[in-house]
Amino acid sequence: MSPPFTSSLIAETARELGIELFLEPKFGYAGRVTYPSGSRRFFHLATMDCNGAAAARIASDKDYTSFFLKSLGYSVPEGEAFFSDQWCLINNTSNNLSAALDYATTIGYPVIVKPNARAQGNGVSLVEDRNFLEQALGELFYDNNIVLVQKVIHGRDYRAIVYKDSAPIFYERTPLSVVGDGNKTVRELLEAKLSHLKKGGRGVKIVPNDTRISNCLTRNYGLDLDSRPRSGQLLRLLDNANLSAGGDAVDLSTEVHQSLRNTAIQIARDAGLTFAGIDIMTKESVTGPISQYTVLEVNDHPGLEHYSAIGKDARNRVKALYRLIIEDME
Fold first, then answer.
1. What percent of the chain has pLDDT over 90?
2. Is the CB of residue 231 less than 8 Å from the CB of residue 181?
3. Which listed residue, 11, 37, 116, 327, has the most CB atoms within 10 A of its CB?
4. What average pLDDT does the chain have?
5. Start and end of every ATP-grasp domain (predicted)?
């Protein structure tokens, strides 16, 4: 079994720098680097030993992250956290499933519903009515104690990968999609797309039978997985644009305006993070100054496997970034 992307890249970089690397042999998920000075640092998948524990913990909690960023004047999605029945009892709150349904009616449909503490787009759905929301919440509360209901934000979805004050990696994300050929079914097109991504080194975490895909097809196109879309018809199959869920990336690292680079660096700094992924949505062109944007989420351990797979330049940027992090961690 070959090590995961991050472990392999760190091993490659450590060899070039003459730094000793000890990798857990069973899965290769975790490792330790030992510097010539004798100091040691650790990593686990995309989590590097460079962020403070408390700041990283806050960043892993979407509700807390929005709360603290909003207190500093940042625009964040309008939303509220709701809790499983067990969590309501423990924390003496009435923000349960029923309250979430009432809240969604107050802010208006459609709404975004998502787990509070999961990454990679897991469990994120757009729902358009009370019945679908009740179903989505019931499924999420099965294995999540805290779920967010948020007002939909419109715009284009971008991610900035920030490390200290270095120039961020910056790319646009678009949701998993297929293009009809007039012959194949949606299921066949999707299976071919996922196979292509896997061959390109992207182990996406999505399957054709994901109910979010069926809901998206029905809601947006009146189709299902067995439908045969017309030739050239673009079908977006998910509401979230996470690359780990099969989304596509357009690299804008050399094109994004310097003011937005500075903004991303400042958001990471205000979140208390040295290394971070900053998710931003805006309707404006990012090649020039922007006046309005929303901070969707902050990630304290941004994965770069999927971005790296889009081309040689992207992989070189990722390797240079990890080299800088490894050099600085001593």
1. 82
2. yes
3. 116
4. 93
5. 66-330
Name the β-bridge partners of 174. 248
Structure tokens, 66: 């929005």
Structure tokens at 253: 């690292």
Among 146, 200, 214, residue whose Cα is nearest residue 308? 200
Return the CATH number of the domain spanning residue range 155-329.
3.30.470.20
Strand partners, 160: 170, 278
Both tokens assigned to 290: 């922007």
Plot region of 323 (φ>0 → left; ψ -120 to 50 → alpha; else → beta): alpha
pTM for the whole thing? 0.91
For 16-52, the pLDDT digits (tens) are 999 999 999 999 999 999 999 999 999 999 999 999 9
1 to each of 8, 11, 25, 28, 150, how far by Cα in Å? 12, 15, 9, 9, 40
